[in-house]
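G., the chain you wanted modeled:
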Amino acid sequence: MLEDRFEACIDACDACAAACDHCAASCLRQQDPTVMSQCIRLDIDCAAICRLTSAMLSRSSALSAEICAACAAACEACADECVRHDNDHCQACVAACQRCAAACELMAVPVLLAPAAGLRPGAM
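Predicted structure as tokens:
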């Protein structure tokens, strides 16, 4: 069984990926989707890294802290873009990205790779 903090981050990543997918699809259905091209790109990137992060956390990867840090950065970039748009789907994406970034930031602490966890730097 995974620790609660892993479960919370996995859930936030999965929810964020779904929100980003919905946002990208909704942006593509707008009258002129080219206006939303940066939003769409960031949605796709964010959804991909959220799914990767969820998978790595699910298997307690030794690289969890690093991938969580990258995921938090991607979520923040996506939220920063989506917040610029008034669409409901963009605002829902902002909220999901902010929740995921916060959860990933908690997981990105180096203690996950500490010797107490049975891992040594360079022992991969």
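Helices lie at 4-28, 37-58, 64-82, 88-107.

Shout if anything looks off.
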